[in-house]
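hey so u asked for the seq, here:
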Amino acid sequence: MRADKGEPNAAGELLQLAGLAYYRASDLVERVLATAREQLDMDVAFVSEVTEGQIAFRSLEGDAGSFHFKEGVATPLATVFCRKVIEGRIPYVVPNVGEDEEVRELEMTRVSNIGSYVGVPLQFSDGRLFGTVCCMSHAPSLELRERDAGFMGVITRLIAEQIEREELEAKNRELKIKATGIGALLAALEARDGYTGEHSQAVVELSAAVARRLGVPEEEVDEIEQAALLHDVGKIGVPDSVLNKPGPLEKGEWELMRQHPIIGERIVAAIEGLAHLAPIKI
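ran it, structure tokens below
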């Protein structure tokens, strides 16, 4: 068990936090959790993610097995400490769980044999709640102080910034894939049917206007615009003799032309980053 924390340990915390800046992004969350666990002399540290009444461990560091914690496994939020932390019903620091009425009877306390706890909510810069960052031990840790919650707050900000960076990078990759895929498909279609480009842009504008008038969220409006831009892409699979015929189409030719939405759905469904647009009907 650690000694009571004075200024020398506080300086050590600062040095450890400064050192984390040298780790690669892929290692950062793991090392931040390890630093928190070591500095607070706890058995396990973790990041939890809260979604729709469930909570799951996103990252674990330390002796997770003795707590029966597994990464990615979801648990009802009502049975765990994190809910009470998020709701402000318990302090961020609980040195002796057995003396706290709010948590000593929780299923998690019994199943995981929790004796002490430090945890803070994990929020993003835009105010969104992601989950919590916590440290736990089987035994009570009477040396824990309120100032340890401040240390965990710094740890949590580092982790929040990293997760936000990962989200932004993933979104940018997705946008790049979409832009590349849509551009390639439209270029191929334009080479076969010069009429489609101007027509598709008109469909985009009309579709977006209708969606906004109906109160569709802006994120979904973006996807509607992308689907509208691609709504005629199946014409790539229509024979030139039908697609560019100067006169009226015969019955069989109309049947071929009417296949282009089905062809378009298959094309879009086969492209990474665009597949989710395939079922949209414009």
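Confidence is low (pLDDT under 50) at residues 3-8, 10-15, 17-26. The first strand starts at residue 44 and ends at 51.
lmk if thats what u needed
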